[in-house]
Batch of 4 targets.
Target 1
Amino acid sequence: MEPDLIRHKLKEFFGYDTFKGDQEEVITHVMGGGDAFVLMPTGGGKSLCYQLPALLMEGTAIVVSPLIALMKNQVDLMRGFDAGAGSVAHFLNSSLSRLQIEEVRSDLLAGRTKLLYVAPESLSKEENVSFLQEVKISFYAIDEAHCISEWGHDFRPEYRNIRDMVNRIGRAPIIALTATATPKVQSDILKNLRIQDAKVFKSSFNRSNLYYEVRDKVEAEKDIIRYIKQNPGKSGIIYCLSRKKVEELAELLCINGISALPYHAGLDAKTRAENQDKFLSEDVYVIVATIAFGMGIDKPDVRFVIHYDIPKSIESYYQETGRAGRDGLEGHCIAYYSYKDVQKLEKFMQGKPVSEQEINKQLLSEVTAYAESSQCRRKLLLNYFGEDYTADNCHCCDNCVHPKEMFDGREEMKLVLQLVESLPEHFKIDHLANVLAGVSNSIIKSYKHDKLKFFGAGAAHSDKFWCTVIHQGLIAHLLAKEIEKYGLIYATEQGRQFLKEPWPLMLVEDRAFSNGTDDEDDEELSAASAAERNGGGAGDPMLLSMLKDLRKNLAKRLKLQPWVIFGDPSLEDMATMYPVTFDELKNCQGVGEGKAHKFGEEFISLIKKYVEENDIIRPDDFVLKSAPNKSANKIFIIQSIDRRMSLEDIAEAKGLDMDELLTEIEAIVASGMKLNLDYYIEENLDSDIVDEIYDYFRNEATSDDVNQAIQALGSDYYEEEVRLVRLKFLCEIAS
């Protein structure tokens, strides 16, 4: 097909005037019947490389894809491009009914379907293999091809069988596509698919619009909330390693006034789909997720990607950060790092096969080196994928924007190279570093390396320092890794030249990080912090007195009880933190969005004036609102009330009795969240009773204490009724 016609079809089907990068060359090659390996960074336009030729070629293209959600997304997209033709693209997987499967097969046999998305498991089924033998196949597209390799960040054993299935169904050109592949992974993909002669199309991995940053994992939750509040209205993804942390962090964000939803494989398919759609349609701006979220999701305006936990590999990190700034505009990538996180990941490896442990240890060591390094992060990332970044300063990472002092490290590098060249066998980085630092352990003793002349030759520095030197030697191409042998180090020809005649070599020491805390420690710290705020003094006594006077006067004007406006803990926080904006006020204990805007203006004005007149230096930090009890139930309860589910059904779904459920709802409301329970109250409570209780809390109560209310109202009122109406009152008036 002529190039002009291909470009015309590009405009007709996809609305683009020009191709991006290697797209046109890839498409022309595939349409010419050649095998191809396409390595493009996230957002580089991989999908178009198989979508357009599939539409133009005779027959059906088989697209192997790992995720059902991704397939559906892609199929919907293709149907939209083809003027709404519902048969142009289909997916075949376990989510389809028998009737739906028959419809797919009918369209395929009739030649109406140009793209068929299948999971590798579906491709392996005997019934599907037999059926597809009857279909004319234009080519096979293997998406997320890194899943083939054990060295890839998302290895899936089923991907190993794809070539055998291709041979059984009928040979046709193969195009393998991935956004992340080291030279080792690339080699694995080509070898396993038996397309070693395939033409390789490799785009630059440099995402110049992304800012990379690693932060010490100290009060990470508070730091995340502060960052998001400083960037209002921007979409972002926060990645956590565990489902439990996803739930907890999503809850914490909601409590602190940030619209967020969780996403992980433990949620049912309907909830996952709903949460994903809400994020894509900007009903919520933040998704807290495990790595189950994001693969193939095309949301171009994600402005930040945060890793609450350090990822397991550089490839995972690159893939996940690549979801930021796909429109070419700014993207901020923040990773939190602590030594304890690394220990946790190492602990997870125990009990796995030795070969798998070795691979995972090597991948983790690369992540650790990246996190702790003071070198340009762009240079480190690109080097990992076999690409050189030659600029001295990228001006778009924390290490380049805030550079550390450098030193001439030629003597240190010379010592490393002399050690490597003196050994008859090759060893890993940590082993070499231990030898130079004089650290004796069982492995060093077993090789008798504690007897070497180089043992302890660099004892003036730590083993960590020598790891840093070796990593920088790799970037400078003085050293290299044997990727087939779990990262063993050897000297390059350039390294041997350096030994003969060393040249100036500017190096930089790595950063030091905190140990971090376990989740249990986090809970203890939160509890201690809350206890300190509740009983540990009332801040500025003069300001507190003025705030109480203001509350009293305002209560009189509005004909409300003082506690309804702000409780004492809220005033004590104000007298400690000196909030002078609505956002700062909302971070005080017991102050939600509604209460801040309803009652806050005069309090802010008073505090601002007091701060100015008394030259108060305000604290830089804010008080982090925390849930009274961490519970995975909370998000479910909030969402269920939004959907107007009966409280009995909500309680049953979570295995709670009504008392326990009301306790959970009270905790949610106490944390500043407003809930609308009118639908339930109107259906289940007498309106006169509601009015009586409501009136009591509005006009008579000196606090929101339920027992006091029951004593005052009399024995005709049930505790459950009082609690429900109290919740209604707190949400409408006191929040």
Target 2
Amino acid sequence: MLIDDLMGARDGDPFANLGLIPNKEINGFTLRAWLPYASKVVAKDIGNTRVIKELECKSKEGLFEAEFPNTDKPFHYSFDVSYPDAVVNVIDPYQFHDEAYTGLAEMKLKASNLYRTLGAHLMTIEVDGVKVSGVKFAVYAPSAKCCSVIGDFNFWDGRRHPMERSLDGHWVLFVPGIKPGDRYKYELKDPLGNRLPHKADPVGFYSEQYPSFASIVVDQTTYTWHDAEWIKSQLNNKVDQPISIYEMHFASWKRKDDGYSYSYREMADELIPYLKKLGYTHVEFMPISEFPFDGSWGYQPVGLFSPTSRFGKVDDLKYLIDQLHQNGIGVIVDWVPAHFPSDSHGLARFDGTPLYEYEDPRRGWHPDWNSYIYDFGRDTVRQFLVASALCWLDYFHVDGLRVDAVASMLYWDYSRKAGQWIPNVDGGNHNYEAISLLRWFNEEVYKNYPHAMTIAEESTAFPGVSRPTYVGGLGFGFKWNMGWMHDSLQYMSLDPIYRQYHHSEMTFSMIYAYDENFILSLSHDECTHGKHSMLYKMPGDEWQQAANLRAFMGYMYAHPGKKLNFMGTEFAQTGEWNHDSQLQWWLLQFDKHKGQQQLIADLNKFYRSEKAMYDADYDKIGFFWLDHSDYQHSIFSWIRRDKNGKNPVYVVSNMTPTPYQNYRMGVLEPGKYQIVLNTDDKKYWGSGYNTGAPEHQSEDVPWQYVTYSVVFNLPPLATVYLKKIG
């Protein structure tokens, strides 16, 4: 019976049972309303100006009806509803069938249509000269037996607003009267009719924190952007631009005196002057899409379309990004399409079935992170993921997406032993479905947002990660150089006396440097879980540790590839990163740490001002070894040039505490040369070792495979940059 279905929140076809229902017996319509706990219902015109008819109570549970015989077309109406303690006027949602279905027919035409259709969207429609405002809800749950939207507006009662199921498995309803800020969830029943835990909106744009995790209605049109000039300036080829990225964890970068993190708006005042002072081109936020567990650092997201509410509202984040842009700083956000957590309010078994995840745990469960893996072969999941990426570029104007854990997506046997994974159709370990998804994602990003970039965290030698899809690549703009990171940090951690036996660990990266568009990344992963801070990875006493780090930074900035440093490295933080605290800002009272900070600022300034340091990062003309085999002294020397082979910068790194008097270094042209940056300078807390005269005249002495050479004193544990004067 209908009343039983309504009482049990099991009505899957409410538009057939509620509202104005054609009635052939009376040659008109039956108006049926379902309003639990109501004692009286009076139908009025949509403008609430005249009474049409009082409805008869058909069930004390809240079912009311009225007949309208000899009525040839439907009409719009409202209800005056009497409750024991109040009389309220409501506009019945079950008269807006077509409005509820808005966008569904076009949703699959392009990926971005998904977030413009699903979720909670504010709508204003005009009927009979009256404007009716509310929210259109749409959620995909094809296997659910029924679905209701619940929230502040209906006392979180799943009986009050049953949704209509489309032929494709979307549940829809337009509910008048709902406003921005109203909270909601979905109440679903699985295929057997069992009620599931209340679910947050998979395409929700804002969310509450623990314990409710409710979705919140948002108006995405209220913020006015002022970054058009910035976006126009980014219509360039990123591979020949200087890119120096400051990676940060929002909650633990800096905290207020009361221990709370800065809000999005407060962060604008704190972060922007700091980044400008240090000269970074971009900031990369570790995941700020909504996530339930702080300890995941954001890498277990449940709201791929929703910025976390920990730090403020949606418009507050837009303000922060807008301000960064107006100050010439790009914004990259971490995007996590590889896996999602099992929290009951999230995507896991969303409609009682594995809707978003692979059903077989050998494909659908990640043993490393105890999380579900998206079904990359399912069209609805693929559109969902790509749409979420585009949403951040669209609504939030981000400049780049760094894709987390790409390697875990590419291989079926990632972090699995024999027997724990299922081969592909060819018997191999490549996940063709994930590969196809990543290619489509990159194509969509660059087609729709040509100013943006995509970055892969990919830790294997998978070919063509940063090569275009039309030549068989994955289509990313850049790839983190995890091999360089591992090898160089391994080398730097050694006592200098042993470095001569590991010389190739610093030179090996140039063998494959042009295989991909690499970013040299010293990320958060290298500063936690017992791996020590960058400073304390270095051997030796206090001075030597700092000198090693400075020399390494000089080496890194002169090595081909864009740059990324995790927060805290810029002032040589001593402790490991702690996500529950803040950086050790107090260290800046000491010269050692102020010196490191000044070095990073100077490196960024020099890097951005010299084309030779960046515009031929991925062209062999931009790099020339002078001496890569001086393992006995642990010295490396090379030349950086621009893409025309001009304006060379000469680089030499001495990775031992032994200084060298009258060190000879090859140069390409005769003339006077000057040291333009020296990581051993006293202003960086270096030793200030005397490098010789302010200018060094070249000599007609062939050296290191070039025609001329200069002589100067090479400081200990230092990287030195030289340029020709004039």
Target 3
Amino acid sequence: MSIEKKIAFKIAQQFPAIYREEQNELVQLVTDYYKFMETQPNQAVYNSRRMYEYRDITTTLQSMIIFFQKKYLADLPLLEDASVRLLVKNILALYRRKGSENGVILFFRMFYEEDVTIYNPSKNIFKPSDSDWRTGEFLQLIPNNNAFLSRDGLRTYTYADLLSKNVVGSTSHAKAVVDKINFILLNNTLTPVLYINQVKGQFQRYDDVVARINGEDVAFGIVNGSASGIDIDLTYGGTTGNAIGDIFNIVSDFGKGATCIVTETEDQFTGIVGYTLKDGGFGYTIENTKLLVSDQVIILQDNADLFFKELEYLEDASGNRGRVIGQNASSVGLLMDVGDEMNGSAISTVDRSTNVTLSNVVRVVVKNGSSPGPLYPDTTNLGDVKVETLSNTETVSLITDVIEGFLNVPLNSANYNAVPPASAPMSGTANPVNINTPINEAFDLRPFVIGTIDAFENIDPGSGYINDVFTLVRDEVMIAFERYEQVLIVDNFSALFSVGDTITQAGVSAIITQINADDSYIRTRPFSYYGFDDTSFSHKGTTYDIIAAERDYTSDQFGKNAEMESKTLFATGRVSKVKILNSGFGYIDGETVFLTDDNGLKVAKGIMSADAEGISAGFWGDETSHLNGYKPDGVYYNSRNKLHDSDFYQEYSYEIRSTVGLETYKETLKQNVHLAGTRLFSKFTHNKKASLAMKSRFFVNRKEDPLIGGDPIVGPNQPGEQIYYSADRNTITTDSINLRVDTV
């Protein structure tokens, strides 16, 4: 409500006209009186016209302040020079903060001019499983040229324009804020990665990342998708004994850096077959290599003196036949013909000149062919058990025709390809073939990529095994060429040779498999069909001359020198489900991946899903549940956490750290800002305010001429007496001398 402060100018209009005309002195007297009454603070008119203003502490009379103080600041401590007006005007802010930390801080600032620290002991109470684990999120985009046109094509944007901007997925409609942008080198291509926060929804693969800039929507690339899940292949053997919570690396041909945690394992206690490639050998091809695994075992009393040949047949009285895959001191493993199963009666060899019947059979284990599964190339199905990869590869061209197929063909035959007497035509282009046909027309050279086996794939571990199985790794096509390891007789034989060392000759490498220092030779496995010649080779930077290079026909042949260990595992803990911990970069949706430990051991196999936003390695947002101890980096960590004591270390206590003693403010604080149900503690802190007083000092170089009539000495840096002057103030003014001011 607005009230006029001055009304004297209206007095004349209150008199009748006769007074204004004939008694003007009276009118003026009354007017002057009201002027006096409305201009003097101690007069009634002056105060009555300002009653509404006096309700406001800012504009009230000084004499009224005491009433405001009693009403709003009762029992509150006031400093001697405190501004009651200011305190009353802001006291509501204090009362609104009653019971809060900010209320305590404001209380001290208003009434003690002190900045205090509030410590809550609950922050340092040890709380099991209370630490906050957080993960970062990012969008891996399809590589582009980092140039994005506006809708009208007049403006060009880059990723830098995305920083701190809101983005939306065009399909998923997920929202986020771009926090940071990195570029990762994947497959020699810079791939943009957007790190995002405040994510709402779930971005999807092939989402356009759209941001609104300058009033228009701009698309900044397409989400490529990051590792989001793995479908574990339970037909893959893998390892047992794994536990929920185990963390493994995710290895693929494309991506890198991803990890996962085991969330579920198989708990069925059963016998499964675990396969370990001990030696990849050499001379194997992917298309012809077979993994032969026994499916029935004969338990013997003692077969120490009975030596079975690889792949020879055994047969029982009922005509059931199986080939010998392997043996040990108490058993022999057979790969039975399709549909056959040994019954244990009169088992004997069938291919020897003098066959032997096994008289020491204890029992015959029931046939179990659940592992390794169907074999390629028998099935021609690339999804069956086969060599996954080769190393130390070499391409050779070979003739695969076998002379055995033409033993009954006369040399003067008109056509060697006639079937019969030939069992199959020759591989060449000529037809007919006779004694006059060139060899390059009769036979065809076939290229083969041969090498060392790195791994097999699609192996089923099977189930229900109660005994070990036996394995053979064979490439029958390469075995037929009868290539062996080499013995190198070395001229300057060295004691530095060790089994497993690599030697090289003209781009061909080999490993040392045996050393004979007495006869100065080494046996080697060359990673080449033709092997080394008799010139020289290099070993650890030194050249050695070869006296002779010969095949060692006692060694294992190329194509049958790999060693696969098979063992029945009676344990639980095969990985069945995992969760992505770190999406890494570059993984492809639908690709085959392997879970490995830090030593590279393949634990499980699965199919990758890479159709969503990625998650980065997590971090602890706080460490309230951490114990003291050494971290993985070797640095000692002190959690400073305390056990709950229901006194100081509890949820409802707080400590005021101040230079003001507790006895000064305790009661007043409890009456005004203290929260009921909480416990107050205090800690006195000594904070001395440093006051820096600067005092100026200056000097002037001055030289008195000691010789009467001598030349005056002028210029800077002249030797002479230093005269010091002190000043009481920091500002010095002069018009005739240059001063150098120091602090004292």
Target 4
Amino acid sequence: MATSKKAQGSGGTRRPPARRAAAAPPRKRHWLRWTIVTVLGVVVLGIAVFAIALARTTVPSPNDLTTSEATVVYWADGRTELGRLGDSTRRSIPLSDVPLDVQHAVLAAEDRGFYDHGGVSPVGIARALWNNVTGGSTQGASTITQQYAKNAFLTQERTWDRKIREILLATKLETVVSKDEILENYLNTIYFGRGADGIEAASIAYFGVPTSELSVEQGAVLAAIIKSPSGLAPEKDLAGLKARWSYVMDAMVEQGWLTPAQRAKTEFPKIKKLKAKDRLGGQTGFLLSMVEQQLLDQGFDETEIQRGGLRVTSTFDQAAQKAATAAVRKAGPDSGTAGLRIGLAAVRPGTGEVVAIYGGPDFVTDQINNATREFAQAGSTFKPFALAAATEKGIGLSTVWPGNSPATVDGYTFNNYGNRSYGDVTLLKATEDSINSAYVSLESEIGVDTVADAAIRAGVPSDTPGLDDRNLTLVLGTSSPSALSMADAYATFAARGDRVSPTTVTRVVGPNGGLLYDYAPRATSAFDPDTVDTVTYALGKVVTDGTGFAAQALGRPAAAKTGTTDDNKSAWFVGYTPQLAVAVLMAKENSDGIPVSMAGTGGLETVTGGSFPAAIWTTFMKSALDGLPALDFPAPPPGVITPSNCPASIAAEGDPVPEGCPTPPVVPEFSNAPEPSAVATLPPSPVPSEVPSETAPPDPQPSASDPQFGPSSQPQPGEPTQEGVTP
């Protein structure tokens, strides 16, 4: 038995059962199992982590960059854009203002599956990961939701951390905000080049129309530009932009948003040329600065003004503003203009609305606004305030005053223009011919403070430079109001004594359409209507019979006053019709800003208020009042109008005096001896070194064919083109 067992064992190695031989190696099975478990664990963990992160993700407030909107300023019509305040050009609009074709163009270019995904594109993410890992371009799968999340809530940095936050925020947004809201916000925040933030600004910048008027072809151009606003700029790479445009149009066909037949009819649209001119050039910067100051005065803060998306309707009339610039070009001097400053301001009586201004040649090159700056002495344009004050005291136009030159009053000695003597004259004659000696005597009678008070009531600010110098030179215009202040003061006369502070803003609407400010004129009664009607009558005679004869060319009733300062450092023409009050000033400065004589400007030895300023005023008023009826002023109260042949004096008592005329003084004879050539200085206190004087009435009268320029003895300015002061 034993031998047989050994023999049996000596036969070789025993084989394992067949069942064990067919089984897989234990190690391989364990590895596969653990791989599957690990992957599933990672996925589950990732989902859990993502879910937790998503749950903890909150949608913050949009950053300042994307919520800021430019304040848009409109002309007086409330529709035509004048310009914008602040650096942003953004104006947010609802999605309903974006044509459906334009929406489709943007989706075709940027995110064709926008309405199907949950904020992110897995395919896009995988593509981005691959490119980033393999060293390709650093890119993200930027769905529209992701782009908006990045622009509105995150930074532009290219890091994995920012990318993860972007994905989380995009996903979160899709749960709390509708697709339409996301698309609307995206279109209002994306940058399109040409300084245009948002589709509304882009539509204006590239095509000059609001988004609501874009065609499908134009919308496709804007959609194409989104990819590379600078690289695909039409002025830089028009061919590249056209290629991208074709890609967008073809994609719209693929998506069924455009039929092949419609596509076949499309053509690349015409794009506006990029203007190199500064957006504040010409008068625009002056106008916008005045609007901004008005908003500040109304209580709006700088953040609201610069980034709050306000919609502001200004008082500026576009046609009148063009007329102001054209008037300076046409009727201003064309030679000797170095250092010359011209200011113009037009105010609507009864409302205070500033209709137009001329601040200077170009805001970009010189931001000093000559229409609002207080730098030029007013000269004899100040005399109507004394006239109003005298009228209030019962001193009529027929009263007689000494008109000789030189004249000494209360220790002060004055000259008339050209040292001309007139003898005794009525107050009306003194107004017509701007006789200094008569008006200084008048001021002495009624008081310097009374004259200053009348000027302040009319609209001259109490802090006007020189207005606090209360001596007899005040009536001759030694103070320096702005052109705007003088236009406003004369508007008080035009409104029969009702004074309204000037304004440049009539309406302010918030970005959501809420009314924030609505202008309502608040008038104060500065003068009795009879007083003002008397002043207006006298200033009307200045135009028909006196130094303001140039305004006769307007062809409608007007009241005005000229002003020319001593040494010819400034010249004014201020006047009004019932519809409009306008002030024009000219002054000259050297390179240090010091006033200098205007002698030689435009070829004239002396630039008076009745020369270039009157010509500019008349030229402007012709255009600004075009289409408006020619209105008469109210008649003055009874007793104001006197016969035109009233004598200033009579030779002896008992000589006949025309009916209705005041009894003049008796002067046996007049002396024609030469007048002194200089002013004697006998003041009790220092007299300003520069005492304004005024132009004498022209003789002979200008011809009807060319009534707007000065006496024929001086070089005529004609109708030159302004040199060096064109906007």
